[in-house]
Amino acid sequence: LAGGAHVLQYRDKSTDPARRHIEAVALRALCQAHGVPLIINDDIALAAAVGAAGVHLGERDADIATARIRLGPGAIIGASCYDSLPRARQLAAAGADYLAFGAFHPSPTKPHARPASPALLRDAAALGLPRVAIGGITPDNGGALIDAGADLLAERLPHRVDAVRVRHRHLVGDIGFRGQRQRLGGEGGVGVGLRQ
Question: Comparing 36-40, 144-148, 168-172, which segment has the lowest mean pLDDT?
Fold first, then answer.
């Protein structure tokens, strides 16, 4: 966060709800201190309980309408599209605030993820939402995804609460999350926190 992250995502697939709540509360406090929204991965109840800025939903999670009702109209709700433009269209129509595509490269986080083509990023531009590229992204391979149209790149970094540093292309103005508008101009980064 001190390095200029604009968003932090907490991802923890464990079955320890008490620890997850404690960690999410601590991350929310850190995010608030830095003026950065906290997004909770896959857990609407945890996002609501800690007052997170939003939630990221995968294909086995609740739908966007449920998340919007629970978290409110100002919540940032992102959705995983994997390798599917039809899914992206459906999620955009359902009210997603950003769309995540990938895996673009092999990833230790999701070794069996469906591979995605950079063409998806170009094709999804017509949906008018920020596009996040995920999956095995490093500083060395991210440039091609930015060139293909990614607004954000998730790069996994090893930490106790694994941090993902997400870089974005130079943007003039705002990327419009429907509920909240987050200034993303300049050469900064976007951070997404992951925990295995």
Answer: 168-172
Three-point CA angle 83, 56, 133, nearest 5°: 40
Buried b (16+ CB within 10 A) or exposed e, 138-149: eeeebeebbebb
pLDDT value for 3: 67
Residue 19 structure tokens: 């620890």
Q: Which residue in the block uniquely carries the two structure tokens 């607004």? A: 151
Reference 97, options 124, 125, 130; nearest CA is 130
80, 131, 165, 167: which one is catalytic? 80
Token pair of 9 as six digits = 């995502």
Q: Which position among 87, 89, 110, 122 bears the catalytic label?
A: 110
Check if 181 is active-site: no
Residue 84 bears catalytic tag: no
* Phi and psi at residue 131, to the nearest 5°: -110, 125
Q: Record the pTM.
A: 0.81
Which range among 60-69, 130-139, 174-183, 184-193 shows the weakest confidence by mean pLDDT? 184-193
Question: What's the farthest any 2 CA atoms get from each other in the chain?
Answer: 42
Contact 184, 6 (CB under 8 A): yes
Q: Which residue has the higher pLDDT, 58 or 186?
A: 58
Q: Is 12 helix (H, G, I), strand (E, B) or coil?
A: strand
- Which DSSP category does 114 fall into? P
Report how far residue 12's alpha carbon sits from residue 67's, in angstroms, rounded to the nearest whole number.
18
- Catalytic residue flag (residue 11): yes
